[in-house]
Amino acid sequence: MAAAKAVHKKTTRPGAAGPEELQQQDGLMPTKVSLTLNGEAVSTEVDSRTLLVELIRENFIKTGTHVGCDTSQCGACVVHVDGRSVKSCTMLALQAEGADIRTIEGVATDGELHPMQEAFREHHGLQCGYCTPGMIMSALDLVKNNPDPDDREIREWLEGNLCRCTGYQNIVRAVKAGAEAMRSGE
Amino acid sequence: MYEFNYHRPASLAEAKEILAANDEAKIVAGGMTLLPTMKMRLAQPSDLIDLSAIEGLDGIKDTGSAIEIGAMTRHADVASSDVVKAAIPALAKLADSIGDAQVRNRGTLGGSIANSDPAADYPAAVLGLGATIRTDQREISADDYFLGMFETALAADELVVAVSFPKPKKAAYAKFPNPASRYAVVGVMVADTDSGLRVAVTGAGACAYRATAFEEALSSSLSAEALEGLTTDSADLNSDLHASAEYRAHLVGVMAKRAVQSLGG
Amino acid sequence: MIKNGMGAAVRRKEDYRFITGNGQYVDDINRPNQVYAYIVRSPVAHARLASVDTAAARAVPGVVAVLTGADMATDGIGGLPCGWGIHNKDGSPMAEPGHPPLAAEVVRYVGDQVAVVIAESKAIARDASELVEVDYDELPAVAGLVAASADGAALVWDEAPGNICYDWEIGDQAATEAAFASAKQIASIDVVNNRLIANAMEPRSAIGEYDSGKDEHTLYTTSQNPHVIRLLMGAFVMGIPEHKLRVIAPDVGGGFGSKIFHYAEEAIVTWAAKKIKRPIKWTAERSESFISDAHGRDHVTHAEMAMDENGIFVGLRVSTRANLGAYLSTFGPSVPTYLYATLLAGTYKTPAIYAEVKGMFTNTVPVDAYRGAGRPEASYLLERLVDRAAKVAGLDPIEIRRRNFIQPDEFPYQTPVALEYDTGDYGAAVDKALELGDYDSFDKRKAESAGRGKLRGIGISTYIEACGLAPSNIAGALGARAGLYEAGTVRVNPTGSVTVLTGSHSHGQGHETTFAQLVTEALGVDFDLVEIVHGDTGKVPFGMGTYGSRSAAVGGVALVNALEKIRTKAKKIAAHLLEASEEDIEFKEGQLTVAGTDKAVAFSDVAMAAYVPHNYPLETLEPGLEETAFYDPKNFTFPAGCHICEVEIDPDTGVVDVVSFTAADDFGRVINPMIVEGQVHGGVAQGIGQALYEQCIYDESGQLMSGSLMDYCLPKADNIPDFSVTTSVTPCTHNVLGVKGCGEAGAIGAPPAVINAVLNALAKYEVDDIQMPATPERVWRAIQSAAK
User: Fold this and answer.
1) Overall domain count for chain B
2) Rounded CA gap, C698 and B128, in Å?
3) Which residues of chain B are within 8 Å of residue C690 when distances are taken between CB atoms?
4) Complex ipTM over 0.90
5) What superfamily in CATH does domain C31-139+203-253+259-290 come from?
6) At residue A24, does pLDDT exceed 70?
7) What are the 10-residue block averages of pLDDT along chain B, 265 residues in total?
């Protein structure tokens, strides 16, 4: 990775400031961030405290990536950063400078579902659909590292992805079937 | 989050310069603890210094007698490293038990030990294996490093660069995870090393510590039976919703035995 | 069987948008010129608001408005209404204090709404919220049932002495006392039903929008029942007539009850949007959900079962205290009464039952329905008590159940606690579960576990629930303040495609698929040509929403009734087109045929004729092909079943692993077995969550200690086993589909099966009680104290 140097300046610190100081602050100086999103080079301006998930959802209006918690437990926000699954609620937008980001919207190609997506539908691996994008992104990272995971490995890998609807069984089935389809190059 | 200045310096020197200029600056490595803390508005750094663009801070090297791991090396890379798995499989296994897959993809060794969270896993490895912490200024022995809850021997302007783990004869880590967060309620690293038998405990106390009574018992007989009858005083142990101090004290013994049992031949 | 019709495991229509990231949940919606709300919430459990100073917050650049309870009162905004009134033993009504959306004088729990900050960005709103200066004059708080019931306890409400909202009873007390007097043996138990939080993965969210040109409000909200919100908020809180208020609940990311209720934030954004003339979005952070979503369960109960010498139940008496929280949530009072004590007969012929329930106010988040709502509490109590009765009577837990079951030939069966069960075969479900769970070879598995140093236990529960809420006349007599029917409209489009408008709401249940199956079954229309529309009061004529496992049994039946009207009209049109008599028209698989001939017309042609009525019986029939039906059920439905759980306990740490779980459920007829199985999986997982992992813990001062997902443990993939699931079918006798409902069963049957298994595993230590959740430390302590 290029050793990019970046400094993002703000004018005051509102948290530490008293009301008067806060009232005087003239806001943030937004910083430009450039990255690749689902194969497309994009850039926008963000505040230092903008999270990667906010960048994705609010700046680029890719709302398939969800926020289900504020303590990095639920995994609804999982995306790929430089090929690895990451909780996009626990990364700053500015930390994604120069990165290659893939979200659920970038998984299907030309309207053709990815085998992992197809497996979630075939095996009823979703109900309300809220955790599903994170589950699929997490599952894809698993299969990249372990092309033929067994049930136990799938369940352990998915520790960071909570689902409240399915009881996980059909998700495990889906991931297994999706991995198999990926192995056989479907 | 409160506002802050974000810096992504290209060199350690530059990072130090920014650190020196800002009293309330904080270093961010993987950010797995710091960013959630900031999101909850429980931390309010003036400046955030992101080390990810500095070259040479990550990587895993076999130096012959030890495995040296760069501070910015991600947990997932330690867990999957053939070098680590061959020389210190217990360390790879420990790294693989931290948090969840996504935490392991971002979290770093340096970030973990600089923070010294009482429930973090790595401190047990650093202390249990008798590692040496290399900073930009000096080398610190693990025994001198962990001072208290979120407190280490690092000076305010000192950065961890790498940790060198001497290869043990054998070692094993047993962990009782918090069911919700998967932090260690209690984690015990047992290592048979060239410098003697070491037992390090994380999760139970204010910071990682060595269980000396266990070490003595195991030094005379490296078996789970040797730990029978040994108890841990719960007086100074942590107590929370998930485990009382008394229960933690009990778990220290159970996890130590399990680690010994999985030492293998 | 018709393709993709009733009984087929059709893959879901709705999945495509979810797996491609194209679902549209409330927080995915952004309205032009939108601003953001952040709610200032009380950090203390009970206090008088001495002052609320918003000046500093208002002065922050980017802040649009800061509004308080005083502003709301000035605008005449009403309190959040309670939808169910309960009466005391003496016939007097329950205490029903007001519930302002923003507190004006007193805050009564940590999380109570104090002010709203509206700003150009979420971050600015949050920053400025820290500058709202609230002076809290703290009052003593009662944070749980024990504290609230103590002598001289501080009062949450002056109008509720002893913190008692109601002191209610059901059943025949004299008959029950007589049964106890004659009993040969008595089993008794004390149980706590742990307080839970639904934690649907999508946090609640609401967008208020006001069109000043038309004087129209729109509320986008994460709701299970948008029409109910329109009624409650429009009529009772805001005074907005229905035609000026549109409520949209788009894709909703799970509900489990927690999104039934009318919440303060919905009223706040609707009200404020008109004041500031801009759309306002509020989305909960998860930690905020913990202190603002209604909680569930939270009972403390003592119960006794009287038996004759053969272990036959002769009487049951139950005394329960139920935590209602600080305010009455929409359906809060009904949950520990009519949804709980009416189920205490269970699957058994206990002839005399008496239950009394005290609903208590505490300085905690309001408590309301959570998956199962009252029925899990009844089932847990009864199935724990029956296991204990088996011990007292010296009978096998399965044998004592079989001896006391209502038999298949005894239906309809009137229980001593108000309900009349229409049908069931409880022994058949037990047989199926025992076989599927390989019950007979348990000893072998136990020995194998023992070889690995583990304690294995097996537990059973046989539950019943009352679903298909509800017959409006019965519910009304019991205190419901609304009707509980459902509405469905079938709009056949000119080319023969079908649009269904249903008042049911899908937030994971898959109605877009199962309801389309019903249409395909009735009209023979290709499954892909059916569209199910729900969740928008601007599109759907009316509806009461989805909760209480009611969608198939009430909404589905309403749809089928509307489909029957379409079939009738289509036959009339076909008779005209085919120059035959209406009685001779057969309607099968999309074709309308003159019986005994090859004269036929396709349904799509009938539709076209209805909209292009050139050749049409205009003198006797209106053009068009659209029908609506309202359906009010005659009775509740009564799903029942048998769950068997096996656990392994690590005696050194106390960790409990669920190693196998078998469910044999009778849901009546099944529309889509794949979806039903998924509902069971999810329900059982939540039941295991209650039994082993989940609990709300308040400290004495009323702070929620388990206030985030760091500390409130939801089951993860590696905490849950694969389930073995089957169904046994006795069709419901009083609806045309024969369906009963499946959404809540798992959460009802699982907790007692798990805990009975844990106690079975600990039998050698003579541990006879353990509270939920059976955490490792609790189990370890139980073993320690037994060993002493």
Assistant:
1) 3
2) 37
3) none
4) yes
5) Aldehyde oxidase/xanthine dehydrogenase, a/b hammerhead (3.90.1170.50)
6) no
7) 96 96 96 96 96 96 98 98 98 97 98 96 98 98 97 96 98 97 96 96 97 97 96 96 97 98 82
Structure tokens that stand for B11 in this block: 């060199």
Q: Is residue B55 part of a domain?
A: no
C369, C290, C263: which is closest to C322 by C-alpha?
Answer: C369
Q: Closest to A90 (Cβ–Cβ): which among B4, B31, B41? A: B31
Interface of B with C in 196-255 (CB under 8 A): 241-244, 247, 250-251, 254
Asked whether the beta carbons of residue B35 and residue A90 sit closer than 8 angstroms, the reply is yes
Q: What is the rounded distance in angstroms from the CA atom of residue B76 to the CA atom of residue B94?
A: 11
Nearest alpha carbon to residue C138 among C218, C18, C49: C49
Residue in chain C lying closest to B255 (CA): C653
The domains located in chain A, with CATH, are 30-106 (3.10.20.30), 115-183 (1.10.150.120)
Which chain B residues are Cβ-neighbours of C719 within 8 angstroms? 179
Cβ atoms within 10 A of the Cβ of C518, count? 25
Residues from chain C that touch A64, judged by Cβ atoms under 8 A, are 20-23
Residue B115: Cβ within 10 Å count:
18
Instruction: Name the residue facing B254 among C652, C693, C777 (closest C-beta).
Output: C652
Tell me if C6 sits within 8 A of C671, measured CB to CB: yes
- Residue A13: which pLDDT band, with cuts at 50, 70 and 90? very low
Which CATH architecture best describes the domain C485-631?
2-Layer Sandwich (3.30)
**Chains A & B: contacts with CB separation below 8 Å:** 125
Q: Are strands B60-62 and B66-70 parallel, antiparallel or unpaired?
A: antiparallel
Per-residue burial over C191-223, b if 16 or more Cβ lie within 10 Å, else e, is bebbbbbbbbbbbbbbbbbbeeeeeebbbbbbb
Rounded to whole angstroms, the Cα distance separating C561 from C628 reads 8
Selected for mutation to probe chain C from B239, B247, B254, B257 (highest C CB count within 10 Å) is B247
Answer whether C140-194+295-401 and C485-631 agree in fold.
yes
Say whether C712 and B247 touch across the interface (CB within 8 A). Answer: no
Neighbors of chain C by Cβ distance (3+ pairs < 8 Å): A, B
- Taking CA atoms, C357 is separated from C196, C300, C389, C603, in Å, by 20, 10, 22, 56
> pLDDT of B112-171, one tens digit each?
999 999 999 999 999 999 999 999 999 999 999 999 999 999 999 999 999 999 999 999
CB within 8 Å: A103 and C21 = yes
pLDDT of residue C722: 97
CB hemisphere CA count around C737 (13 angstroms): 37
C422-465+636-788 folds as Aldehyde Oxidoreductase; domain 4 (3.30.365)
Chains that touch A (3 or more CB pairs under 8 A): B, C
Instruction: Report d(CA C641, CA C666) in Å as an integer.
Output: 6
Beta-carbon contacts of C555 under 8 Å, excluding residues fewer than 6 positions away, are C486, C488, C502, C503, C504, C511, C515, C543, C546
A107 neighbors C241 (Cβ within 8 angstroms): no
Shared domain for B35 and B73, answered yes or no, is no
**Best residue of B96, B100, B117, B178 to probe chain A, by most A CBs closer than 10 Å:** B100
Give the distance from residue A69's alpha carbon to the nearest chain C alpha carbon, in angstroms.
5
Cα distance between residue C591 and residue A73, in whole Å: 54
When the pLDDT of each residue in chain B is averaged and rounded to a whole number, the result is 96
Put simply, whether B79 touches C (Cβ < 8 Å) is no
| CB of C350 closer than 8 Å to CB of C416 | yes
Q: How far is C26 from chain B (nearest CA, A)?
A: 22
Q: Cα B199–B204–B209 angle (5° rounding)?
A: 40
Nearest residue on chain C to A25, judged by CA atoms?
Answer: C61
Residue C123 near chain B (CB below 8 Å): yes
